[in-house]
Amino acid sequence: MRAHMGVPLIDARDLVRTYAMGGATEVFAVRGVSLSVDAGEFVALQGPSGSGKTTLLNLLGLLDRPDSGALTVAGVDASGLSENARADMRRDRFGFVFQTFNLIPVLSARENVEYPMAIAGRPASERKARAEDLLSTVGLAGKAGVRPDLLSGGQRQRVAIARALANEPAVVFADEPTANLDSHTADGILELMRRLCDASGVAFLFATHDPRVVEQARRVVALHDGRIESDAVKG
Amino acid sequence: MSPLALAWRNLVRQRRRTLLMGIVVAFGFAAFALAGGFIAQSFEGLREGTIRSVGQLQAVDRRAVASAEETTLQFGIPNAVRARALVAADPAVSSVLPRIDFVGLASNGSKSVPYLGVGVDPEPEAAATGAREMVVSGSYLSGDGGEGVLLGTGLAAALGAKAGDRITLMATTPDGSLNAVDALVRGLVDVRIKELNDRYVAAGTPLVSRLLQTEGTVSKLVIFLKPRVDEAAAAARIRAALTGAGYPVVVRGWRELALFYEQVKLLYVGIFGFVGTVLVVIVILSAAIVMTMAVVERTREIGTVRALGTRPSGVLRLFLAEGVLIALLGCAAGAVFALLVRAGLNAWGFTLPPPPGGTHGDPIHVQVYPLAYAAGFVAMLLTMTIASYFPARRAARLSIVEALAHV
């Protein structure tokens, strides 16, 4: 386990999450996990299927609520937040990248990137400029007006990364971001995220069992049966 | 990207579903608009027919309201010419028609048939009520009517009479004696009610007065008013003028005289209200099913926008906006459809079957009734909002994790 200086960006203490599996049977997806993440970290949550990495990512990203345990985000206790406050915190502090890209199909690439800024109430001119800037950053300057169904898998994931960065988040959660990509494209996406992490100081937290992601990560947290098995920072 | 703009994109994306739902709404709207127009036409026809028959106002001796006459013209209005002039002097009045109600027997010499007679001032009567249009054979009464009479087609058939034939009218005078006059059949009329056609006789007031031996006395004054005047105020003024001149009358409006008008109106409102309710329920159920399908199909998308920070109320607004947009589009299409159907029906000249006891049905003439269009719009808007609300609320309450994992 790691020692921290000051207030961590995300600080989870003894998180527990169970699921009912028919009748009275309860399955522990996460069993008393404690984990801290600091700004600018590039962390991989690694483990086999069913180890709890996606569940943990969902808990840390405020997409799900733990059965017990404490979670603070930049010093704010997230446990007692209302649904609206959690939504606002996700919008303002977090970005998300999904395995299946999850772009809004009726919006163009630029409009997809604009979406988080739109729900944050940012002016249209500012949204448009920032979206185009972000698309340029991820190498899609010429694809702003293109709908997701006309983009390749790699391009869609780049749009998703640009969208995740739209509201200048403190941390981007990425659940198996390379699982649906060929190895060449996956390498490009990983390189892009690492570059963005270095350039902007945004923390990236991956749930993955892709060895390439683990290889690129600067810190690897290994999970097994809902518990942290190891938490190692690479030299 | 406003909820409406996003909703519009989703509707365009799901063209088939939008089209299906739009058609349901359009039919619902058109049904409201057309039924409303038809009801308006029916009420208008009923109102006009009632007024043509009983006038807008009627002045009668107040005793005639409380009890039935034991002898002919027992409660009549004497010196009717003076009373008529008093009423005609009111600025709201357009015409005053004297009428004498009487009964008796009509005979062709070998056969006698009972009749219900009405004495009229022929020309003003025809001008105000369109009585001339009822003539199906021969001609209308001329001048003061002279010795001419009009017979209902059924009565004429019973007597074997036709225009130009002579008949004898018999009736009881106020003093109880029997009197008879010879009359010339000027024409046969169809008063559109079979039972009345079998008994109807109309003649000029001079002939009727001679028959009844009641010179100058009428049963009632039927009053027509100028357009857009206050009926109640006119009735009050006329009653005051007649009462002040020594006529103990009451003046009643056509609604009071034709109780069946309100009853028929209530019946129509009941029938169309029921049909409208069924229609709204069908649209709600159809729309709810379609919107629920939309929510299910877009579960992962809902999870995504929630993950990105859209509040539950934002998801609710998104789906409600889709429902409202479908309602707007459907109503616009429905309005066009209703206007086309209306034009087709009116051009076709389709005639409705006659009402019970009637001899003729009326041709369908569907009006453009703005209130029905407004009611259709409000009904469809509310319907789609209600139909969208519950699937939208379900979408807003979805677990983000489960929604993202939806396949």
Topology:
The complex is a heterodimer of chains A (235) and B (407).
Chain A: E1 10-20, E2 26-37, E3 42-46, H1 53-60, E4 68-73, E5 76-77, H2 83-93, E6 94-97, H3 109-119, H4 124-137, H5 153-164, E7 171-175, H6 183-200, E8 203-208, H7 211-216, E9 219-224, E10 227-233
Parallel strand pairs in A: 3-8, 3-9, 6-7, 7-8
Antiparallel strand pairs in A: 1-2, 1-4, 4-5, 9-10
Helix pairs in contact in A: 3-4, 3-5, 4-5, 5-6
Chain B: H1 3-13, H2 15-54, E1 57-61, H3 62-66, H4 80-88, E2 93-107, E3 112-120, H5 122-129, E4 135-138, E5 148-152, H6 153-159, E6 166-172, E7 178-189, H7 194-197, E8 200-204, H8 205-212, E9 220-225, H9 231-244, E10 249-253, H10 254-257, H11 259-297, H12 299-307, H13 312-348, H14 370-396, H15 400-404
Describe this structure in words.
The complex is a heterodimer of chains A (235) and B (407). Chain A has helices at residues 53-60, 83-93, 109-119, 124-137, 153-164, 183-200, 211-216; strands at 10-20, 26-37, 42-46, 68-73, 76-77, 94-97, 171-175, 203-208, 219-224, 227-233. In chain A, helix 3 (109-119) crosses helix 4 (124-137), helix 3 (109-119) packs parallel to helix 5 (153-164) and helix 4 (124-137) crosses helix 5 (153-164). In chain A, 34% of the residues lie in helices and 27% in strands. The radius of gyration of chain A is 18 Å and the shape is globular. A six-stranded mixed β-sheet of chain A has the order 6-7-8-3-9-10, sandwiched between helices. A four-stranded antiparallel β-sheet of chain A has the order 2-1-4-5. Chain A is an alpha/beta fold and 235 residues long. Chain B has 407 residues and is of the alpha+beta class. Chain B is 56% helix and 18% strand. Chain B has helices at 3-13, 15-54, 62-66, 80-88, 122-129, 153-159, 194-197, 205-212, 231-244, 254-257, 259-297, 299-307, 312-348, 370-396, 400-404, and strands at residues 57-61, 93-107, 112-120, 135-138, 148-152, 166-172, 178-189, 200-204, 220-225, 249-253. A six-stranded mixed β-barrel of chain B has the order 2-3-8-5-7-6, surrounded by four helices. Classes of the chains: A alpha/beta (235), B alpha+beta (407).
